[in-house]
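Thread title: Can someone regenerate the structure for this chain?

I was given the following input by a collaborator and told the matching structure tokens would be attached. They weren't. Posting the sequence so someone can regenerate them.
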Amino acid sequence: MRVFLGITGASGLVYAERLIECMLAAGARVELCVSKAAHQVAALEMGEPWPARPEALQAFFLDRFPGHPGRLEVFGREDWLAPAASGSNPPDAAVICPCTTGSLAAIAQGLADSLIERAADVALKERRTLILVPREAPFSAIHLEHMLRLAKLGAVILPPNPGFYHRPQSIQDLVDFVVARILDHLRLPHDLMARWGE
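Best answer:
Regenerated them for you:
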């Protein structure tokens, strides 16, 4: 399975890193693109900056999550030759995690000034799975209208709101709850948490 993952500059990059790790472990091929703002947020939230160049960022993640050669490829923000930029070679699914409200608005309006927005646009027009993980609180009426418009077009709106019925003991447990829901919608196997009723 090919999955395009766009990481934008909302808070919550820990979700994106864990998602990369789990998708690779599940056997998916991951096509990754990171916004400029996400690089700035990474320096604040992750304890170390992410490399700026796509090749260096690819090496960074493959070093962090070893054992998956050839299954992670990082593309530049304006790499219009990336497979996800065309409906003739769309990924099986696209995920924007975390998704800024600015990216949400652009996707809802059909704007595509970056590879992330274009990949989301392609997913919609080709009827592929599109999962948006908007990390904002509270949502304004504008944000909610954009979400409703995208939901009507078939996108999955999945705010990173963890449940507590699994009795989380750590921040990692809360992160894994959200990542597990994303993986479920991608139909990728995982054992991050017990399911309801188990």
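The two ends are 28 Å apart (CA to CA).
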